[in-house]
Amino acid sequence: MGDNILEMEVVTADGSEITVSESSNPDLYWAMRGAGQNFGIVTKFRYKIFDYPNGQDIFHATYHFTEDQLEILFEHLNSLINNGTLPRDVNAYVVLRSKPLISPRPVFVYHFYYLGSSEKASPYTQTILNLNPISISNATFPYKDVSHRSFQASIGDPTCAAGISTKTRFPVGLQTYNVSANRKIYDLFEDMITAHPALANSFVQFEAFPMQAVKAVDAASTAYAHRQDDILV
Fold first, then answer.
1. Taking the model in full, what pTM does it have?
2. How far is CA 105 from CA 5, 45, 99, 198, 200, in A?
3. What is the reported pLDDT for 165?
4. pLDDT at residue 82, as a whole number
5. What angle do CA 20, 21, 23 make, to 5 degrees?
6. Mind spelling out the 3-state secondary structure of the chain?
7. pLDDT means per 10 residues in the chain (233 residues)?
8. By the 8 A CB rule, do 66 and 188 touch?
């Protein structure tokens, strides 16, 4: 998101009000797009926005996989992500969580999104079906509803309500999934929620997004240091 900031009005630690942009205080413009939150208070900003594809639909499929399918699932995801070449129309993320109605042990919930119809998504979804998920559901909705339908993060959703506390997350950037490490993550997660039932609503999220636009930006133009990462855990 920092790549699309054009200009900021900033109050610095000494009380000065300055403009930060490519042509005004360019050192701060470089730093404030990726190096953290300790340079000043942003009181106003200009941001590059984009037209959304009006009339375009999103196809969303949800698959559940059990513990014994861990290895084939993440091998599939590594193949799909393919060293940072995940297709621009695809988003794939997996959530490890407890779902007692589906399995007594934690399961993997695989969310697959495609910008287009289910028919056009079928070359991808068929490879997922070949993994034999234990349950499948799908839906198609307008692109404009993606924030609400995907993350409950639109205006009026509980996530954006006043007074709702922010969930603490601790992300790690990766270039590929280490399948044996993910097996250890599963074991640790299961041990944790078994020993501490109050943590049963915790989850581990494995995210992959198309990174072509991120990597098209000159790495030296901002302080953001993770353009090589293709996965967020």
1. 0.86
2. 44, 47, 8, 16, 11
3. 55
4. 87
5. 115
6. CHHHEEEEEEECCCCCEEEEECCCCHHHHHHHCCCCCCCCEEEEEEECCCCCCCCCEEEEEEEEECHHHHHHHHHHHHHHHCCCCCCCCEEEEEEEECCCCCCCCCEEEEEEEEECCHHHHHHHHHHHHCCCCCEEEEEEEEHHHHHHHHHCCCCCCHHHCCCCCCCCCCCCEECCCCHHHHHHHHHHHHHHHHHCHHHCCCEEEEEECCCHHHHHCCHHHCCCCCCCCCEEC
7. 91 94 94 86 93 84 97 96 87 94 95 94 95 95 81 66 62 89 97 95 90 88 87 82
8. no
Radius of gyration from C-alpha coordinates of the chain: 20
The terminus-to-terminus CA distance of the chain in angstroms comes to 18
